Structure formats: structure tokens, C-alpha cells
Amino acid sequence: MPRPNHPQWFEQGAAHIWLPYAQMKTAAPPLPVVKTAGSRLYLDDGRELIDGVANWWTACHGMNHPHIQRTIHAQIDVLPHVMMGGLAHEQSYRLASRLAALLPGDLNHVFFSDSGSVAVEVALKMAIQARLNHGGKGHKILSFRGGYHGDTFATMSVCDPEEGMHHLFQSVLLQNIIADLPTTPEHITALRDILDRHHTELAAILVEPLVQGAGGMVMHDHSVLHILRELADEYGLTLIFDEIFTGFHRTGALFACESAGVVPDIITLSKALTGGFLPLAATIARTHIFNAFYDDNPQHALMHGPTFMGNALACAAANASLDLFEREPRAEQVRAIEAHLRESLEPCRSATHVRDVRVIGAIGVVELESSVDVRVIQHELIARQVWVRPFRNIIYLTPALTITSDDLNQLTTAITHVVGV
Ligand SMILES: Cc1ncc(COP(=O)(O)O)c(C=O)c1O
Questions:
Q1: How far apart are CA 128 and CA 156, in angstroms?
Q2: What is the pLDDT along the chain (421 residues), one digit of tens a residue?
Q3: Cα of 276 to ligand 1 centre, how many Å?
Q4: Is the CB of 116 under 6 A from ligand 1?
Q5: Which of 59, 159, 218, 280 meets the CB 3.0–4.6 Å disulfide criterion with 314?
Q6: How far does residue 268's CA lie from ligand 1's centre (Å)?
């Protein structure tokens, strides 16, 4: 329930707003934020929190970056939005060519949408239709335990069926195939076995490269992606990398696929694409996927077109965000963050209720015993001026890549204290 001294908009809206991932009866009330800057959230009651999760992994340059602000301001005066059906505008065309130039190989064909889940839906649709257009039949998707790809119906069907949050829907979802990531010789054999038995039913293999994020912040090494590339080629399947979390330097390199040296057939991007200012997503296909649609038959077209596809303000923000990646030393900043996270979170390993500590790029994870109530931990962290959003038994940091070392220090010190080091 809202506290009596909260602002009027909060009091009035609280009875009407439906919050994400929340049991509305018992959920703690959210914290009213009145201003943001860099890695700081300013609350209505005067408190200031350090944002340890970059606004759900989006605000890679910190919040309110002036270059993105100025670009959006300029765009809004000239052309806030035009529909992409039949009309074109500069920001989306420039962004498409810049993304194609940044991505490895011939990942050259960019389809814009407005959220990560929809970008994954489009990737699945592309993979399935690319087969249908060639008279193929396989339509199922092979995805992995621990994976998370969104909350829409098709994406729910490729999330982890048990650990994921969509198990209630299992009986009504598309029947796809789930496997363990090929991280051990036994899992490689098991995956091969699944592919031997099911490859004719399949269209694609879908994976979050290097880190399974919302499924538990579980990391794997490059070899897993090489194995998936080999198996996809051997069994004639489309390989989709969902880089909605890992893209834009989160794991170190600009894209996880780049650091692994593996080119998927389709990649999905969102989250940090606009530097955290506006919703935008992209599904980018290699030329052989695009060519499966490119012919004289109108039935072979990709029949998809979100109303706000390629929104000019969002594309302007994304172009400005790419300017910052060009101009500012994000790769070095990630290296410094990684070194800091490794050193400062490592002592947590000795705490009684800590099961594991792991770090890659600008992602730091402290996994607790499942008996620990992370809501209590979140509460204690807020008292220490730290904003994080632990889930299940996972406390994690995914700060802005521009976070100062003092702020980062405050985040890691607070975590080590609350886990009892
Ligand atoms: C890897 C991955 N894919 C897809 C999504 C869904 O994105 P959105 O919440 O924008 O629909 C997420 C969101 O956390 C994600 O981490």
C-alpha cells in the first residue's frame, strides 16, 4: 500500500496500475522515482539510489546521457514517427546500415520491432517460414534449459519449462523441444541424440549466447556456441542467437557472437539498443535467410509489421547510442568493471549462504542457497542506497558501463555486507 506521504499521482494511480511479474495482493509497493541521472535514481522522499541493474539492462551509457537526449529532442521537432508501410525515414535506414556494418558476417537484413519478445517472435517466424518457402516442414524450435526469451506465447514456449515463470501455460503452449546446453560430453551426446530423433520436425536452434540471463544468470564458454554452430549446420537448422541481454558490450565484446567467433543465422537485439531511452528491437538475418523470402511469389513475403516499427525517435536514440559506442571507451570500461566485480565479489564465496560467485564482462552474480529470502536482501540493499532486483536465489549486478568506480564500489560493498562477509 502506498505510504500517505507519497505524491498524489502515486496514490491515485496505485489502484489502477498493474505491475510486472507481481502478485498484486502481496507485492511490495514500487519506489516512486522523480528524477534520473547517470547511475542515480532520485526518489520522491529525497533518497538517492545507485542503479545496479541499468534499468533492466538497458541504460548502458547511464540514464539521461546528454548526446541521446539532444538527438531525441532534435528528432521530435522534425519527425517523431512515420509508418514504415510505404514510407521511409532517415533514422531507421541509417540504423539498419550501421547495425549491418557492426554485426559479423552477412548479418545484413534488419527487421525492426518494439520489444525483445517480439524480436524473438519475428526470429522464430523467419526461421520457420524460410523452410516453408522452400517446401520444408520442420517448424519446432530447439531451445535450452535455463533459457528465457520473453513473455509472449511463442517465446514462452521456448523458455525453460520448469524453472521459467511460464510453467502454468505448459499445456497450451506450442510444443517445442528443450535440451541441456552442450556444456559436458554427456550433454553433447544427449543433444546429438535429440537431433538425430527430431531434426525433421525442427526449424531452428535458439540460444542466449554466453549468458542465460533471466533464467538464472548462468554462464557458458565459447565452445558451446561452436558446437551449436556445427550441429545446426550438420542437421540443416537455423541458428538463432538471442543477444537481447548480451548485446552492446554486456559480456565484453560488442556482441557475444563476436567474442565467440560464431556467426548465427539470425540475431535478436533490444534492451541497450537505444541506450535505455525508448523501446526498440531488431531481428537481423543473414543473406541466405533473407533470400528464402526474396522471390516473385507474394506468399513468400514475411507478413509482419508492428505499427510502431522503426519508430523515428527510438531509431534516433539508437543511432545516438551507436555514436557513443564509437566515441567513448566502452570496451575498456567493461574490462575495468569486470576486474572490479571479480575482485570485490569473490569474498562472498566464503559467506555461509552463498553457493556461487560468477562474473563475465559487466555482469556480476552472487548465487545464494535457495532458502534465502532475497526480498529481505533487496530491502537491506535499498537501505544502503543500492537498487538491484534479485530474483529466485540470484543477486546480480549489471550496472551502466559508465558507472564510476566509487558507485561500483558502493554496490559491491553493499552486496558483500548483506550476504554476510
Ligand atoms: C534474452 C532475452 N530475450 C528476450 C527478452 C524479452 O524482452 P522484452 O522484455 O523486451 O520483451 C529478454 C528480456 O529480459 C531477454 O533477456
A1: 17
A2: 445 578 999 999 999 999 999 999 999 999 999 999 999 999 999 999 999 999 999 999 999 999 999 999 999 999 999 999 999 999 999 999 999 999 999 999 999 999 999 999 999 999 999 999 999 999 999 999 999 999 999 999 999 988 777 888 988 999 999 999 999 999 999 999 999 999 999 999 999 999 999 999 999 999 999 999 999 999 999 999 999 999 999 999 999 999 999 999 999 999 999 999 999 999 999 999 999 999 999 999 999 999 999 999 999 999 999 999 999 999 999 999 999 999 999 999 999 999 999 999 999 999 999 999 999 999 999 999 999 999 999 999 999 999 999 999 999 999 999 999 8
A3: 13
A4: yes
A5: 280
A6: 10
Task: List Cβ neighbours of 137 (8 Å cut-off, separation of 6 or more).
Answer: 131, 200, 201
**Does ligand 1 lie within 6 Å of residue 149's CB atom?**
yes
Does residue 282 have its Cβ closer than 6 Å to ligand 1? no
Return d(Cα 358, Cα 341) in angstroms, integer. 9
Q: How far is CA 35 from the centre of its chain?
A: 24
Give the Å distance between the CA of 270 and the centre of ligand 1: 8
Ligand 1 pocket, residue 283 CB under 6 Å: no
- Residue 320 CA to residue 270 CA, distance in Å, equals 15
What is the reported pTM? Answer: 0.97
